[in-house]
Prior knowledge:
Number of strands: 10
Mean pLDDT: 82
Structural class: alpha/beta
Order of helices and strands: HHEHHEEEHHEHHEHHEEEEHHHHHHH
CATH architecture of the largest domain: 3-Layer(aba) Sandwich
Amino acid sequence: MNIYQYIKENGNFSFEEKKVNEVDYIIFSFLSYADFTKVFEENDKYTLQEVGRIHKEKLPGKDTNVIAVKEGNKLLRAMMNTKRYKDCLLYNHIYISNDNIQFGAISIEYQKNKVYVSFEGTDQSFSGWKENFILSYNNLTDSHKYAIKYLNKYFTWNTKELIIGGHSKGGNLALVGSMYCNPLVRFHIKNIYGADSPGILEKEYHSKRYQKVKKKFIHIIPESSIIGILLYNSNNKVVKVTNKTILSHNIFYWVIEKDHFAKATLSPLSKELNKEILKWVKQCNREDKEEFVNNFDTILKKAKVTTILDLKAKKRKIIELLYDSKDMSETSKKIIIDLINILIKCFKDTKKEELKNAINNFYTIINKGIK
Length: 371
């Protein structure tokens, strides 16, 4: 069964009647995508059912949001009247989106004194995926700093049990936020959930900060993972999916058996991509990466590339623009061409419609891959 079938089957059971499990935690991870901007004012605290009601009043018509937000809104509506989720308390909502940053978070108290802090992934805003480019040469982005600040602000004097998590970029924020938050917060963190989230730099992976939270980190990835196998991750649990394309990044394709995700093994393509990206990253020094960030977006815009499908169709045009550029080093040109070849190889069997629907995920791949 999928997420919605799980909610339907288990919605009549409270967390006391059926214990909270990994499926519930991943649902909470994705819930932060929902558009709460018209629901919450500062210091507001509502039950999930109340949030759903206000949400329907404020957004009564056709949902015109981007893909991830639409799914988050749909998930909220599916949960709002169930016995299992309706009394969860939602608070500490924050959402920031401007030219430099896209950051969102919500605290979900699902049982008394048990809180799930959900960090939002990339929601297709320009700043959301643009900021990921900066990860290639800056270990802590503005979003990371906001995640750390969020945990310290709301939970330094907290006595409640904490689970920190998120989907995609949100899972990365959950991990890094937990690594860098103050010890008073970290003491109360029971687990950290990453739902197909990109890894961290090799230096960070071997750091003392990571070692302090490593045993608490649970990383759940689909068998055909593209995002979650990038860079350095650990404690991977591979799960079965019903769609083995890039769309498997979407948790709604993950197969559930009773109260857990069905286990699987990582596909050969995912293993190969992981190896190729790591090899590619190690070839680049900081200066190369910074130059890459400054030029890649400009080249794609000039070539009118908006999807990975365009990369293949307009590869010749991109290469012409690269070689015509007088402001870019030969090293930077080679880096861009190598990345394009890796991505084309990865997506050669993905349908046009799927690529268009998954543009958010493609940008994440490009951005996280250059870390």
